Amino acid sequence: MRNADAETQRKILNRLKRARGQLDSVINSVENNGSCREIVTQLAAVSTALDRAGFMIVSGAMQYCITDPESAAEEEDGLTVEELEKLFLTLS
After folding, report:
1. Which of 13, 25, 42, 80 has CA 20 to 30 A from 36's CA?
2. CA torsion through residues 9, 52, 64, 89, sign
3. pTM score of the predicted model
């Protein structure tokens, strides 16, 4: 994330904050004996928001790694394209 532009970083943070709010709703529903349908629907929304944030992070790192591999390896603690592929696959 060190090399994400301000707009990308803002979008990622918004998704993560949205996921946090949705997770708070899940917790509240569980604490208040919410319906199974409501809880599962909210959990799905949390999962989607987190996945999208993860994909944005990995895709930004991949772009950086492809356009400037030497700097990317140095600034991202030696992160290689192969490692990025593995990170991407962990999200799918």
Report:
1. 13
2. positive
3. 0.72
